[in-house]
C-alpha cells in the first residue's frame, strides 16, 4: 500500500514568494509608506519570478517600479539602469504605454540631475506617445514635467502655459490628485514672482483637495507651501506652526528624509528671525537624518537669498507615472 504524502500547507510567506503580483503589491504598499528598502526587496523578488517564468511584461513593470523607488532614494544610476531595461523590453514587444512610462522615468532621472536638455527631449517624445494613444492622464503628468523644466529655467510664462494645459486635462478626466499637484506648482511660480496672495490662495485650494482625499503626503506639500508664504510675509508664528504640523506628519509615518527636510525648513525660519537658539536643534536634526545630496540646496539658498530676499527657490519635482 502506497502511503500518500502528507498534506503540505502553504503559508502566506510561501504564497507571496511564488506570486509576483502579490510581491508587486507588497512592494507598492511599502513604497507608499516610504519604506524604500522593503519596497526594493519585494520588487526585486517579483523581478526574479517574472524572469524565471518568462513574463516579459511583468519583468518590464517590475523593472520600472524598481527604478521608481531608486529615483525616490536619489539613486540615479540604478534608476537609469532599470528604466533603460524597461524601455528595451517595451520597445521590443511594441507596448506604447509601457514605452511612454519608461521614457518619462528616464526624463525624470535627467531632470533630477539638472540635465534639462536630455529630459526635455524625452518628455517631448513621451507627450507624442500619450497623445497618440489617448492617454490624457499620462499626457498631463508629462506636461507637468516639461513645465517643471521651464520653471527651473525661470521661464515662468512658458511654464504657466503648460501647467494650464495640464490642469485642463486633469479637470476633464476628474483627476483630483493630479489637479492638486499642478495647482501646487502654479502656486510656487506665483510665489517666486512675488505674487504672494495668489500663491496663498492656490496653496489653500491644494490643502483642501488633499485633505478631502485623505492624502497625508499631499497635505505636507500644501502645508509647506503655505508656511513658505507666511515666512515671506514675516509671519513667523504661522510659518512655524505649519512647518511643525508637517513635521508631525512625517514623524508619524516614519519618513526620515521628510523629517530632515522640514527640520531644515524650521531651522531656516528661525534663523531668518534671528532665533538662533530655537534653530540649532532643527539644524542638527536635519544634518543627522539627511544625506549630503539633501543639503545641496543650501548653496542654492545662499545664492537665491541675495536675489529674492529670504525666499527659498523651490525645485519642481518630476512626478512618476502611475
Keywords:
globular; 16 helices; disordered N terminus; 322 residues; single chain; mainly alpha
Characterization of the model:
By secondary structure, this protein is an all-alpha fold.
State the distance separating the first and last CA atoms: 57 Å
The value of Rg in angstroms is 22 Å
Q: What is the number of helices?
A: 16
Helical residues, percent? over 70%
Structural class: mainly alpha
Q: Whole-number average pLDDT?
A: 85
Note poorly predicted spans: 1-12, 291-316
Largest sheet: none
> Any idea what the shape is?
globular
Secondary-structure element string: HHHHHHHHHHHHHHHH
Oligomer state of the chains in this structure: single chain
Explain briefly what this protein structure is:
The protein contains 16 helices and no strands.
